Amino acid sequence: MNVVRNVLTSVRLGALTLKSARTYAFKSDLKIKWVRPEKISCIKPEKSGDLEGMMHIDPSQPQLPFRGSKELETADETVKKLFSLEYAPRRKTTQVYGYEMKQLVKRHSFDTGSVEVQIARWTAIIRAYQELMEKFPRNKVMKVILKELIDRRKKKLKYLRRWDYKRFEWLLEALKIVYKPPPEHFHWITRKESLRKLTNNYCEDIKQRRLEDYKQMLQNEQPVFLQEKIRALEFIKNEQSECGVEVTVKDEEIEAVRKQLKELEEKRKNGEDYNN
User: Fold this and answer.
1) Which residue in 105, 93, 95, 252 sits closest to 169, CA to CA?
2) Is-contact 238 214, C-beta < 8 A?
3) Which stretches of the chain drop beneath a pLDDT of 50?
4) What is the pTM of this model?
5) Cα–Cα distances in angstroms (integers) from residue 94 to residues 57, 89, 158, 172, 248, in the given order
6) Distance CA 155, CA 54 (A)
């Protein structure tokens, strides 16, 4: 009795398994392939809007605090080399780059806190960090700092765009930046929706291709159709004349069809010569 009960239980479980088997994820015979688009990191120049990277800084020039120093100008070459950017940490080169960027956009010689100068300083740091992230992509701390700087710069650009659009455009052109505001409506890219669109495009292509083939077939049969039309019109005209009834087919109609046939043959002949 227990054996029979166990067998019936197994059969029921098997039936439930077959009923609940997944049947919707089947492989289609259509030659449609969807590849998920590659996600671009927010710290990449493509997303941040930087059109160029960090400019080349001459390593032989002195560090920023020692520029214009008379003692350094009269010093030995070895001392000049030690105080140059070549033997200084990388942040000193970034400081020089930031200084050069600020010189492009500052309003006057003592400008250190305007919106343009802040954006120029952040742009220099962003581009320096982006170059470092290419070498050290697993540096999480630098990635977070870089993302915060990009967001802060976008916020300042949004503020400047609202209050002074002409200066905003001039700043973008001077610093080689593209302003990319966040989208108004965010939409997830899903496999199901993308496959639907690809299927619709595939069906439209098939429809268009068949219509073009049908059009080509009709164009190939057009001379034969015109010849048959000429013979039919001539037959109708002759029959009406022999029966003594009013002739409804005029010579002008037959000549018009012949002219149409002649023009079609000439066009086809010219087209064949052009293809050859």
Assistant:
1) 105
2) no
3) 1, 3-4, 7-8, 11, 13, 15-19, 21, 273-276
4) 0.66
5) 9, 9, 25, 20, 94
6) 22
